[in-house]
TrEMBL record:
Recognizes and hydrolyzes the peptide bond at the C-terminal Gly of ubiquitin. Involved in the processing of poly-ubiquitin precursors as well as that of ubiquitinated proteins. GO terms for biological process: cell communication; protein deubiquitination; proteolysis; signaling. Residues 159-271 form the UBP-type domain. It catalyses: Thiol-dependent hydrolysis of ester, thioester, amide, peptide and isopeptide bonds formed by the C-terminal Gly of ubiquitin (a 76-residue protein attached to proteins as an intracellular targeting signal). InterPro entries: Papain-like_cys_pep_sf, Peptidase_C19_UCH, Ub_carboxyl-term_hydrolase, UBA, UBA-like_sf, Ubiquitinyl_hydrolase, UBP13_Znf-UBP_var, USP. The lineage of its organism: Eukaryota, Viridiplantae, Streptophyta, Embryophyta, Tracheophyta. Its EC number is 3.4.19.12. Zn(2+) binds at C185, C188, C205, H218. Residues 621-662, 682-722 form the UBA domain. This is Ubiquitin carboxyl-terminal hydrolase. Residues 313-811 form the USP domain. It is an enzyme of class 3 (hydrolase). The keyword Repeat applies. It comes from the Eukaryota.
Length: 813
């Protein structure tokens, strides 16, 4: 048989070559089915018809599926560097960008060839002998910004500061002259963290941090008393005025004051002569990331031995994606997800059933992620992947895999997760399981998310002696932390005395001196099951409002139990605060006593009825007391009214939680609609049916959809975040009684004994779930392992007492 000329073969396939248009998504940095890249041994093959990329082990599958024979082969080889570049101290709270953490990226040489399948006939590029169509197509591919890169245009850094509207017409009063140094708070002895109010020249200390450090809140209290909006942090003022830390209290953010020079001159301040002596708010946030919690949770300073092999693959931080990395590492340590997306489904099976673009298919991308994490293919020392000299075991590190395509798919239905901002790991976990359940709806027996699902039953005992039972399904058990159950009360009292003495002297306590409350996990579980009083409960038996008792129990025990510790609460004055507390978590727990007993012999259900005169919906009215308390904290009056209405006046804490999570809503400043009937009519019945299919009561579903603008995802989160909604609905007579007979959605859930073993911890570092860092610790092969983005190693001291989410596996037998 005569040998085919490569150029003639290429010309015969020109009809399968396309020149990409500006709207085409071009993949050239990562395989669609694996984590192979141009730096992998076999390089990357870009289909010159669909512009999808494939590794050397998978390009033949694409040829078999599509018949597309012509590919651009991209291979990158690392350049040799004579000396290791020194690590720089980070200047930004960012990962993977200039000035951020660990940004020593090696340089690579890139080569290109045209490859024709199935025989892998190769032609070099560039070459003037290539057909013009091919040359134009390749040039367009190489010059275009890759689809992967487009999805990573942002990095972990604060949003750009905006000009304050209050700075433009700021009225300044008094005749205060501020000296260039020697400042002290006008209301206490603090000499650092001082803020100059730009209206009256008062010098006052800043906010108190959640750990007790910082100021005494005198500056913000002065704003609440006077309404004077702007303050500048003394010690941050230099000749570079844009670097000065100006804070706007009504805008609740750091801002730019374009007239700062003249505002300072009013108080006799010559900014050109001042030296920087204080950190800005952003710098302090960065500095806090090296504090005790950061070091303890990340096991910084510990001689952590790197681990490589199947199940020990790190995930590259894409910019604020640690919440996703920590969660997915734990999820793929469960048998249910391993079986579904790794053991029982290979990459080729997933690709064959995927749509034309496998990058948008959740099943494909979950299978890709599972094989990337569990196969061990990418869990190698970086030197073995790039061919350089092998370092010592202690210094070895892996590159990890970048879950870009998975993130794009899972975030497609959730606008927040598609951003580069930090997110709540709990919220992501719930969204992820919801998407997995939806993608397996056709074959629910294959759905691995069911291994986390369980039933919860609320029993409401009316003063009439009759009862109501409300049931719902959940994936997590959210626990309050009863600080009064701390086991180290004497040590805490002694520490608080020392702390008070130091603060009176204007000194801060060191991290080594801090004593944190220690609360047993058993106390948190007992608090969940303890009776809770419901005031103003409408009793259909008494036909009047009364006081009822609510208790909660589980109707089934899942294969995997996830405990969420509510570390973010409201302190005195309703100021959001992160509890600085340790939770003593045993390796094995038994929750058998938490099983719900259901309707008991002799119990009588409350009759189904609604309060007289309340059958017709009235217009939404905010509780004045809730609005007043929120407004006293500096929030906008309209925003406070919306928060109260959208949480059905359940309480200040519920309203505050709603307000904090909806501050950025585009319609937050829109007037309140007073057409309740119109609001009810606007709720999509299909959305109500969807929530009901999840196991929620219909009235609860309507309440949640109303509070969430009809968005099912937000409505689900609202229900999880407002456990008192059931009681609120009952008090309004919308769901005073329900049958205790299991509903269809209760059937088929995994169930078993109540003994569980701890196997995973997701810890959070930072003052809010919307900032900071997440790390996972997982029990694998009999030892604890730390998964800190792309760093994987044997844990020496797992922070079992500092978790945000705890994952337990049921002990069978």
């Amino acid at each position: 048989m005569a040998e085919i000329n490569p150029m003639e073969l290429l010309r015969s396939n020109l009809s399968r070559v396309r020149i990409p248009e500006p709207t085409n998504r071009i993949y050239k940095q990562e395989c669609c089915l694996s984590f192979d890249s141009p730096r992998s041994e076999g390089g990357l093959f870009v289909d010159m018809n669909t512009f999808l990329a494939f590794g050397k082990d998978h390009v033949a599958w694409n040829y078999e599926k599509t018949g597309n024979p012509v590919y651009l082969h991209i291979k990158q080889t690392q350049k040799l560097v004579s000396e290791d570049r020194p690590l720089k101290k980070p200047a930004l709270l960012a990962i993977g960008i200039d000035g951020g953490f660990d940004n020593n990226e090696p340089e690579y040489e890139e080569t290109h060839n045209i490859v024709i399948l199935p025989s892998y006939v190769t032609l070099p590029f560039p070459s003037v002998e290539l057909p013009e169509k091919v040359r134009l197509a390749v040039d367009s591919i190489l010059l275009a910004e890759g689809a992967e890169r487009k999805e990573q245009v942002a990095a972990w850094t604060a949003d750009k500061k905006q000009k304050s509207t209050y700075a433009m017409e700021l009225q300044q009063i008094g005749n205060v002259v501020v000296p260039p140094s020697g400042w002290k708070c006008a209301k206490c002895d603090k000499t650092d963290n001082l803020w100059l109010n730009l209206t009256d020249g008062m010098i006052l200390c800043g906010r108190k941090n959640w750990d007790g450090t910082g100021g005494n809140n005198h500056a913000v209290e002065h704003y609440r008393e006077t309404g004077y909006p702007l303050a500048v942090k003394l010690g941050t003022i230099t000749s570079d005025l844009e670097a000065a830390d100006v804070f706007s209290y009504p805008e609740d953010d750091s801002v730019i004051d374009p007239h700062l020079a003249e505002h300072l001159a009013y108080f006799g301040i010559d900014f050109s002569s001042l030296q920087k002596t204080e950190m800005t708010t952003a710098e302090r946030e960065l500095d806090q990331n090296t504090n005790f919690d950061w070091n303890r949770i990340q096991e910084s300073g510990q001689d952590v031995e790197p681990i490589f092999g199947p199940g020990y693959t790190g995930l590259v931080n894409l910019g604020n994606s640690c919440y996703m990395a920590a969660t997915m590492q734990v999820v793929f340590s469960t048998q249910s997800f391993c079986r579904r997306y790794y053991m029982n489904q290979n990459l080729k099976m997933a690709f064959e059933t995927a749509p034309a673009d496998p990058t948008v298919d959740l099943n494909m991308q979950l299978t890709k992620l599972a094989h990337g994490l569990l196969s061990g293919k990418y869990s190698l020392p970086a030197s073995e992947r790039d061919g350089t000299a092998t370092p010592s075991v202690k210094d070895a590190k892996q590159e990890g895999i970048p879950p870009r395509m998975f993130k794009a798919v899972i975030a497609a239905s959730h606008p927040e997760f598609s951003t580069m901002r930090q997110q709540d790991a709990l919220e992501f976990f719930l969204h992820f399981l919801d998407q997995v359940e939806r993608s397996n709806a056709a074959k629910p027996e294959l759905d691995p998310s069911r291994s986390f699902k369980f039933g919860v039953e609320d029993r409401i005992l009316c003063s009439s002696g009759k009862v109501a039972y409300n049931k719902r399904l959940d994936y997590i058990l959210s626990l309050n932390i009863p600080l009064h159950e701390a086991t180290n009360k004497q040590e805490l009292e002694a520490f608080n005395k020392i702390k008070a003495e130091k603060m009176s002297e204007g000194k801060d306590v060191s991290n080594d001196e801090i004593v944190r409350p220690r609360v047993p996990l058993e106390a948190c579980l007992a608090n969940f099951a303890a009776p809770e009083e419901i005031r103003d409960f409408y009793s259909s038996a008494l036909k009047a409002k009364t006081t009822a008792l609510k208790t909660a129990g589980l109707t089934s025990f899942p294969d995997y139990l996830v405990l969420h510790m509510r570390k973010f609460v409201m302190e005195a004055g309703w100021v959001p605060k992160k509890l600085d507390v340790y939770i003593d978590v045993p390796d094995i727990i038994d929750i058998s006593h938490m099983r719900s007993k259901g309707l008991q012999p002799g119990e009588e259900l409350l009759p189904e009825a609604v309060p007289e005169g309340e059958v017709e919906s009235s217009q939404p009215v905010a509780d004045d007391a809730i609005v007043a308390q929120l407004a006293s904290m500096g929030f906008n009056q309209l925003h406070c009214q919306k928060a109260a209405i959208n949480t059905s006046n359940a309480g200040v804490e519920e309203a505050m939680n709603w307000l904090l999570s909806h501050m950025d809503d585009p319609d937050i400043d829109a007037p309140i609609s007073h057409s309740a009937k119109g609001a009810e009519a606007s709720i999509d019945q299909s959305a109500v049916d969807t929530l009901v299919s999840f196991g929620f009561q219909e009235e609860i579903a309507r309440m949640a959809l109303k509070a969430s603008g009809g968005d099912i995802e937000k409505a689900t989160d609202w229900i999880f975040s407002n456990p008192n909604a059931y009681a609120s609905a009952s008090s309004m007579g919308t769901d005073t009684a329900s049958n205790s007979t299991p509903t269809p959605v209760d059937a088929g859930l995994p169930d078993g004994g109540g003994r569980y073993r701890l196997f995973g911890i997701v810890s959070h570092i930072g003052t809010s779930t919307q900032c900071g860092h997440y790390v996972a610790h997982i029990l694998k092969d009999g030892r604890w392992v730390i998964f800190n983005d792309d760093k994987v190693g044997a844990s020496i001291n797992p922070p079992k007492d500092m978790g945000y989410l705890y994952f337990f596996e049921r002990i069978n037998g």
